[in-house]
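Problem 12. The chain below contains 100 residues. Write out its predicted structure in token notation.
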Amino acid sequence: MLIVVHEFLHAAGYVYIGKASWRDVKFGIIWKQFMPYAHCRVPLRINHYRMAVFLPVILGVVPLTYAFFYRQSVSFSHRGVYDTRIPRGLDDCKRNKKVL
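Solution.
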């Protein structure tokens, strides 16, 4: 399911950064490899294209940076997204009786 969001972020970059219209964006799946894709049918400036391509990466770095500085962990699984605390040290583990 996250791959659909990933491809939608590319498409949003084509539209909002590259100034293409939603009609110019094609979504599809290469069935032989079961690979979804988002494709812009009109030419984009190279810098707009680069930003659209890196948009999912950039948006992934923001939550990871937040998790790093606030000592939180975000776990993705087939059941959903979970936000769990990382113990700050051995004292937290002993206090909460968590086993590492």
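Discussion. The mean pLDDT is 78. Students who got a different answer should revisit the alignment rule from Section 12.3.
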